[in-house]
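Interim report, section 4.2 (structural modelling).
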Amino acid sequence: MKYGFLFSCVCVVGVLSAVYPAQAYGLSATLLAQTQSSVLYVEANATSFTAAENFVGKLADQGISFLSDKNISEAKQKAEFRKLLNRNFDMTTIARFSLGRHWRSATKAQRDEYMKLFKAMIVDVYSSRFKDYQGQKISIVGSREEGKRDILVHSVLKQDSGPDVKVDWRVRNRDGRYKVIDVIVEGVSMAVTQRSDFSSVVQRGGGKMEALLVHLRAN
Amino acid sequence: MLKSKAIAMINKIQNLTVLTAFAVMALFLASCSSSGSEAVVSGDAGISDPFESTNRAIFSFNAVVDDAVIHPIAKGYNAVVPSRARTGVDNVLKNLRSPVNFANQVLQGDVDGAGTVVVRAVVNTLLGLGGLVDLAGYEGIEYEGEDFGQTLAKWGVGHGPYLVVPVLGPSSARDYVGYAVDSFADPLRWYLFNIEEEGVYYGKVGADYLNLRASLVDVLEDLENSSIDYYAATRSAYYQRREALVNDLGPDSATGPAIPDYDDY
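Predicted structure of the assembly:
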């Protein structure tokens, strides 16, 4: 019995040494190749990528930290969060994108009301999203160019329970400073989902902008 | 007696599933040959939902079942079972999926991916207590779930119509056919059916379902709270998520939507 166990241990170690280093070398070789190519790439835009990554890192830390601060009342938390969002998110772009083609057919009064209601709603949406992240750590893992204007900052959310979550932040340089225009969680863009949602509401309301406003007012 | 009766019933249900899958495939091929562009939902390029009213009805039905049974079970599972144990269950189920993942990686021509599946399966089965511990994952050899729906996508097959399947939830003609093919071809199923342990196989299918639903509790609650039309939001999220999976969540392969500079407001 004892020898049988010993034998299986030896087998396991044998497999370990055979399989593991092979993969480890393979892995480090790919890692090396990736690092080299990304070094060349980053050198061209080093400052803008670093700046965008720092911007997102700071924003995520701030957002998570005071939403998980139990000493602040919920109303105060929301007020602070609203300020943070208004400073760091490009609300106009997010609102316009979310409405899609229905913007064009809306009247001036409808546009103004939509903008106002959207900003109120988005604070709720993002603060509940950030609330899920409280007490957890977001680490920035890299960034790349998205389209011609934007930088997509990749981050990973380490959860206490459950697997890591990939969170990508799309930031755009507006008037010399970065602003977030979309947050993409595990491949699902908040802006695209919102637009699909709004579009369906308008369409089912007979193509009328009013149908969407009714729902937004009710919030 | 009771067991064999139950199994016979489940077998029937499964045959039915395969039949529906074939029916769906036929439907899907038919819709591919017709133009069908008028069914595309505006504002969301690429989503085709010609059966929207039926889908919405099934979606509501699923919501009722979910609220009454599945959501409480998933929440209870998350609350009662410690997170380490849940991770262990997740690891075992992922490990059992290795043959399916391997076959699909090969069919997609992803040699690196297929190698990763083999290394993960060997390391985690032999050294990770039969798959309970994701040792390979700790070493940065990450799990990638592959299914036949993704393989079809790699082969250039589009989604076809969007489908909400009773109990299973959002899918598409392509992905549902993929699901049926994966379930049918799974060597684990063949093995367990051969040794007449069908019950074990169905237990595993149930565990897969609960595991997935439990991992989505927060995500779906969030989506429901933040959307006006939950059906449309779910549909959009489903398409985006599948797109990301087809591209293996690669940061370089996925491109976001064009978001213009709006300077007129």
